[in-house]
Amino acid sequence: MRELSRILFISGGLVMLLLGTVHVVLTPQHPGERKGLSPVDPAVEDSLARARVGLSDRMDMWRAWVGFNLSHSLGVSLLGLTVLLVGRTAASFASDAAVFLPLAVVVSFAYLGLAVVYWYRAPVIGVGLAVALFASAWTLHTS
């Protein structure tokens, strides 16, 4: 059962790493770059590039939005990578699973809550799958 738990854990980590990587690929780096997370209306894109943020005259909403998307991608990818490192061997999984299994469940569940409220169907499905894999891994590990 411990090996199946480790495989499910790694599978959840792969899902999160894939989601984080896809998010980076879909994030446009500058106005006018057409990618999946680009505003459909070019006027919105232009408005974001012109709108300044109150904290700094140098910062505009476009840069803040791109930075948010890239930092979000980094967090999701880091969760996936951490899971893969913990699960890389049976020995590392055995020594660290008690900490990282519940952590993966809690963090991925938080992402699922965000996905349900703020995002679209694909991330909800992907993060939901990761939650199910992590929760199953934790259940098997403790039984």
Write the layout of secondary structure elements.
Layout: H1 2-26, H2 42-50, E1 52-53, E2 56-60, H3 61-86, H4 90-118, H5 121-142
Question: How would you explain this protein's 3D organization?
Answer:
Strand 1 and strand 2 form a beta hairpin. The chain is mostly helical and 143 residues long. Helix 4 runs antiparallel to helix 5. The mean pLDDT is 94. It has one domain (2-142). The chain has helices at 2-26, 42-50, 61-86, 90-118, 121-142; strands at 52-53, 56-60. The chain has five helices and two strands, in the order H-H-E-E-H-H-H. It has a two-stranded antiparallel sheet.
Secondary structure tally: strands: 2
Largest sheet: 2 strands, antiparallel
Order of helices and strands: HHEEHHH
Oligomeric form of this entry?
A: single chain
Low-confidence stretches: none
Count every helix, treating DSSP H or I runs of 4 or more residues as helices: 5
Helix content: over 70%
- Beta-sheet strand percentage? under 5%
- Number of self-contained structural domains: 1
Mean pLDDT figure: 94
Q: List the strand order in the largest sheet.
A: 1-2
What structural category do the secondary elements indicate?
mainly alpha
- Measure the end-to-end span: 8 Å
Shape: elongated
The gyration radius over C-alpha positions equals 18 Å
What are the salient characteristics of this protein?
143 residues, mainly alpha, two-stranded antiparallel sheet, 5 helices, 2 strands, 78% helix
